[in-house]
Amino acid sequence: MAPLLAPSLLAADYGNLQAEVERLADSAADWLHYDVMDGRFVPNISFGPGVLQAVHRHARQPFDVHLMIEEPQNYLAAFRDAGAASITVHYEACPHLHRVVQQIKHLGCRAGVALNPHTPVGLLEDIAADLDLVLIMSVNPGFGGQTFIPNTLRKVAALKELLDDCGSSALIEVDGGVTLDNAAALVEAGADVLVAGSFVFNSPEGPVATLANMRAHLSASIGAAEQGKG
Ligand code: DX5
Ligand code: ZN
């Protein structure tokens, strides 16, 4: 499967969110990544379901909602109603993770679990088969524009193996510090979805051209890897 690209609106122009999602409509973006922060689980505050509902109306791609909040179970329906296609909660924020995952699925959304950089993938062994998505944080959550943590590559490969062993078809998503320097290696390690915020929105070429570059770069490197195997 060609990797999916999910630009993060955390790095978009908040004064022009309608224009930001409209200009992505015909871009290489597959999903729009929406980062929710509560100032408690992470030391930053972003946006909630009200803003999602407002921008969702103007967007063509599905919204991939990443909840970096405590007690996410209290807000799942609000984000579904606001337009979330997938909802990802943090392993570290959910003592009753199995119940939360079932709640997300009952709402009709794709259910994801995110792991902080220090959280081992092995902790997902008993829930992997229930998941639609696993998000590997490649920076500490809370802020855009941070440097990619190299151990993520090893972690993605280990997760890929665990999902195969559990017969899970969950997608592997990587979030934080993703650029053209690490995108192909992440896909090679097993990533299915790449989130990118500042690299896409702060590039001199602008988000549409940058996403097109990422898509072309990934297609070329996947083609080369397949030729090498053959
Ligand atoms: C970080 C967020 C990310 C963030 C990524 O806590 O979860 O989605 O937007 O931003 P970059 O790509 O700038 O690291
Ligand atoms: Zn995110």
UniProtKB/TrEMBL annotation:
CDD domains listed in its UniProt record: RPE
One record GO biological process: pentose catabolic process
The keyword Manganese belongs to this UniProt entry's keyword annotation: yes
Entry keywords, A to Z: Carbohydrate metabolism, Cobalt, Isomerase, Manganese, Metal-binding, Zinc
UniProt EC number: 5.1.3.1
Entry binding sites for a divalent metal cation: 33, 35, 66, 175
Keyword Manganese: yes
Active site, per annotation: 35, 175
Cofactor note: Binds 1 divalent metal cation per subunit.
InterPro entries tied to this protein: Aldolase_TIM, Ribul_P_3_epim, Ribul_P_3_epim-like, RibuloseP-bd_barrel
Molecular function via GO: D-ribulose-phosphate 3-epimerase activity; metal ion binding
Any GO CC annotation of this UniProt entry: cytoplasm
Binding locations of substrate: 8, 66, 142-145, 175-177, 197-198
Pathway assigned in UniProt: Carbohydrate degradation
Annotated coiled-coil segments of the chain: none
PROSITE patterns to which the protein is assigned, alphabetical: RIBUL_P_3_EPIMER_1 (PS01085), RIBUL_P_3_EPIMER_2 (PS01086)
HAMAP family in alphabetical order: RPE
Annotated family: Belongs to the ribulose-phosphate 3-epimerase family.
PANTHER family: RIBULOSE-5-PHOSPHATE-3-EPIMERASE
Descriptive protein name: Ribulose-phosphate 3-epimerase
Source lineage: Bacteria, Pseudomonadati, Bacteroidota, Cytophagia, Cytophagales
Gene it is expressed from: rpe
